[in-house]
Design brief:
Blueprint (H helix, E strand, L loop, with lengths): L2 E5 L3 H13 L3 E5 L2 H10 L4 E5 L7 H11 L5 E5 L6 H12 L4 E4 L4 H13 L3
Length: about 130
C-alpha cells in the first residue's frame, strides 16, 4: 500500500483529503505544519507528499527545499489557494514547480483532480 503524507495547516482540507485518499486505497499520514511533516518523512517511508504552500510554521517552499535535499526521490504535489487565491498564489505554485514539485494544484480543488495527479505520480515515478 502506497504511503502519502499530507501537510496542510487547514484541518478541514487535511482531514477531508486524507479520508478521500484512504478510501482510494492509500495509507495516509498527516501533518499540520511543515516541520512536523518533515519529521514524519524522516521517520517513515513516504511514497508521495502533498503540501500546502502558505502555512505559519515552515511554509511549503521551505518544505519543498528540505525534501529535495533530504528525500530527493519522493514525488511532490503542492497545493495553494485560500486567502492567497490570486496572482500571489500562482507565483508561489510556479516557484514550487521550479524548486522540484512535480505537480501544482490551485485551491479549491476537487478530490478527483487530486487523485489523478496522485495516481499519475505513484504509477509513473519521476
Amino acid at each position: 500500500m502506497k504511503r502519502i503524507l499530507i501537510i496542510d495547516d487547514d484541518q478541514t482540507v487535511r482531514q477531508s483529503t486524507a479520508r478521500f485518499l484512504e478510501r482510494s486505497g492509500y495509507q495516509l499520514y498527516t501533518a499540520a505544519s511543515g516541520s512536523s511533516g518533515l519529521r514524519i518523512c524522516d521517520e517513515h517511508p513516504i511514497d508521495l507528499v502533498i503540501t500546502d504552500i502558505f502555512m505559519p510554521d515552515s511554509d511549503g517552499i521551505e518544505v519543498i527545499m528540505a525534501l529535495r535535499q533530504n528525500h530527493p526521490r519522493i514525488p511532490l504535489i503542492t497545493i495553494s489557494g485560500g486567502p492567497h487565491n490570486n496572482g500571489e498564489s500562482a507565483f508561489f505554485l510556479q516557484t514550487a514547480i521550479d524548486l522540484g514539485a512535480h505537480h501544482a494544484i490551485k485551491k479549491p480543488f476537487s478530490h478527483d483532480e487530486l487523485l489523478v495527479a496522485v495516481s499519475a505520480l505513484l504509477e509513473h515515478p519521476v
